[in-house]
Specification:
- It contains twelve helices and three strands, in the order αααααααααβααββα.
- By secondary structure, it is mainly alpha-helical.
- It has a three-stranded antiparallel β-sheet, sandwiched between helices.
- It is elongated, with a radius of gyration of 27 Å.
- It starts with a helix and ends with a helix.
């Protein structure tokens, strides 16, 4: 049950990295064994190194410790080394590995890191194509590699934009723009973990607007929505950057104060109350 909950919390790239680790084990292992049997030692060793790092990443993902930077600094160089050796020893057959490597970089790495990884791949592949292949074949390899790079980057850009919008919709109250109940639970869990580790205090302020139903009844729901938007903007200008304001539903709000004890929370609650009363007058 805990494993399923952990899997559901993983983002797209972490899940992709885990899946690629399993696929890498199944696909690369026969190639590694074949290379070793046929005394292509460097290819066999580099294949085994890729498999090892992929499995290590998959294990770290399930422990909640996965780091894309580790992938960029460790896995990418090993893949590029394997690619260079494969191209040098197998020529055109070796170039075929460039395409799945390129796609994998865009899937498992954040966008900017994927650009860096693929720029490194191009730097490795193009000079080797120039040296090993005849002009016509070299131009075809470079053209197809450029095309795959372009479409992969375009796809990831569109996917990242859609993912960001969906995450924002899932975690944000559509009316007020404040965080919603989903993000509240996650924020509280993080605050509790931080409290246990650092002993840093935290305080919650619960807010309920008085007579809000009368506003809707007398002036209409559009006016009530304007009140909720206004009070939400008011909270944003009064809380610290490190704090978070949430709309629980209806006219109920909650403010999470990080690194603030009960006395600090009372002072802010009084400030919010007196300032809002003065604004009403």
């Amino acid at each position: 049950m805990q494993l399923r909950e952990h899997w559901n919390r993983l983002d797209f790239r972490a899940r992709s990295m885990f899946a690629i680790g399993i696929v890498g084990l199944l696909v690369l292992t026969p190639f590694a064994v074949n290379n070793l049997i046929n005394e292509r030692i460097l290819l066999g060793i580099s294949s085994i190194a890729i498999i090892t790092v992929l499995l290590a990443n998959s294990w770290m993902i399930m422990r909640g410790e996965y780091s894309p930077m580790m992938t960029l600094l460790l896995l990418v160089p090993i893949i590029l080394l394997f690619l260079a050796i494969s191209i040098w020893t197998q020529e055109i057959i070796g170039f075929l590995w460039a395409y799945p490597a390129l796609l994998a970089f865009y899937i498992i790495l954040p966008e900017k890191q994927a650009w860096v990884a693929n720029a490194m791949l191009v730097i490795v592949v193009v000079p080797l194509a120039w040296i090993i292949l005849d002009t016509g074949l070299m131009l075809r390899v470079v053209a197809t590699l450029t095309t795959v790079t372009f479409f992969s980057a375009l796809y990831i850009r569109i996917f990242s934009d859609l993912q960001s919008k969906l995450e924002e919709q899932a975690l944000t109250d559509a009316l007020t723009g404040l965080s919603n109940r989903v993000l509240l639970q996650e924020s509280l869990e993080q605050a509790i973990i931080r409290r246990a580790r650092t002993k840093e205090p935290m305080t919650l302020i619960a807010i309920d607007l008085d007579h809000f139903k009368a506003v809707n009844d007398n002036y209409g729901h559009e006016s009530g929505d304007n009140v909720l938007r206004g009070i939400s903007d008011f909270f944003r200008t009064r809380v610290r950057i490190s704090d978070k304001a949430f709309r629980l539903g209806g006219e109920e709000f909650l403010i999470l104060l990080n690194d603030a004890d009960a006395e600090t929370g009372m002072r802010l609650a009084d400030c919010l109350l007196y300032t809002s009363d003065a604004a009403d007058e």
